[in-house]
Amino acid sequence: MSKMRIPELLSPAGDREKFDAALRYGADAVYLAGKRFGMRAASGNFTPDELRAAVSDAHALGKKVYLTLNILPRDEQYDEIAGFLGEISDIPLDAFIAASPELCGL
Question: N or C: which end of the chain has fewer CB within 10 A?
Answer without folding.
Answer: N
